[in-house]
Every structure is written in structure tokens, then in C-alpha cells.
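Message: A physicist's question: would you kindly supply an amino acid chain plus C-alpha cells?
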Amino acid sequence: MINFTVKGAIFDVDDTLLDNKQGAAEGSLHERSRLAALYTVGKKHGIPQLMAVTSKQNLDAFLTAPVHTLEAAIWNIFVMTGLADSQVINPEDPILKEIVALKNELHEDILLKYGEEMPGAIKFVRALGKGDLKDKFAIASTAVRRDVDVFLKMTKLKEFFPDARIKTKESITHPKPNPEVFNLAFDSLGLPESDREYVCVFEDDPRGIMAAKAAGLYVCAITTARFDRKALASLEVAPDLIADSYKEFAKYFGLKI
């Protein structure tokens, strides 16, 4: 059980509230749209390295990117395939910009077609948000705002996350593991600094966990196909609480879902 009064909650979206289909044969939702964009742009410009990127390379590039952004994952692919010789991202690279734009365009259709909640996420948010906490929820995501809005509309969770409390890629300069997005989300709750340790963050990715811990928040990590309980517990910056499902989280928080 959580042994303190929860003052607020901040949620990541991909693989935390949204089931990104990790482990699916076709790849996760983001992997599908990213790989399609790489192939399309590679074919258009005659870049065989991009057309030959495998599903495994695509996933590894995301997982090993130093920061949690689409640009970092794609640039990591450039490095892995010899198209770039430095880990320092050139944000003005025209091929990078074209792939990012196309990936984001393709992803909306994939999200609308295949996007679903993580099992139990909607019921958990609604149960946790009963009473005073309903006005103390925020989103902290490095996804683009449009994708977050699409998901909240699909799941009818928008009532818990008004615009001012949704922090996304467009809100920040420094992506996770930098704590900026979580600091912005915490500030949006209007709580005193002394309440940071009583605000629960729900995350799945080590970079997000690191960012939330750096922001002084209480981190609740949900396991996924990529990061099981053992992997999360052994992180250099480990979460405060680990659960395999929202049903398990509900027990820790004394909720019925």
C-alpha cells in the first residue's frame, strides 16, 4: 500500500497509458510508422541504407538513443548505418527532418486504427481521479501533442487532463532523461514544492524514470515486454514502486477497478 496521501499524479502516455503493442510481430505502433518513414524517404532519395533497416535495428536504435525522442532514434539509425559519424544530432539535417515529418504523419492513422489503452489504464485513472485528485492530474510525454490528444479523445480521458496540464514534445527544450517535462507537469498542478515527493509519476521507460526521479517525484513503473520487473529494479536510478499491471497498482493505492 502507498503509505502517504497522494497529492497528484503525472502520467507518461506511450507504453504507460497507451498500449504501443510492444512485442507484436509487426513491431510496436511507433516502430511501424518509423520504419515505414525510413523506407519511403530512403526510396525517394536513393539511400539504400535506410531501405535496408531491419525491425531489430529500428527497435535497438530507439532503445539505445541517449534521449527519448524520435529525432534521437532516427539519428541513431544514421550512426548505425554509417550515414552519420557523430552521435551529436544535427536537427537541421534535411533527411532527418523529412523522416520525422513523414513518421508523424503516418503515425496518426496507425494510432487511430490500432491504438488501445494499456489493460486497466482507463479504470485506474478514473478510480484514482475520484474526488480532489481529479484536478491534480497531468501528462508528461515526449510524444507530439497531436498523438496525445488523439489518445485522450479515444479513451474519453480528456476530462482529467485539461490543456494546461498536458506537457508534450512541443513544451520542452530538453527531453527525458532531463527532468524538464516533469517539472513543467508538476508546476501545472499548482502544488507547493514540498508536495513533490507525494506526486506519483506513472512511467515505463528507464529514461522517463530517471527524469521523474530527478524531478523529485514518486515514481511508479509499469512493466512491459521490454522492461520486466527485474530490469526495472536493477536500474541505476530505480523506481519507487513497480507493478505488472494497473490491477496491481490499484491494490497498492487501495482502489477497486
User: Anything to note?
Assistant: The two ends are 15 Å apart (CA to CA).
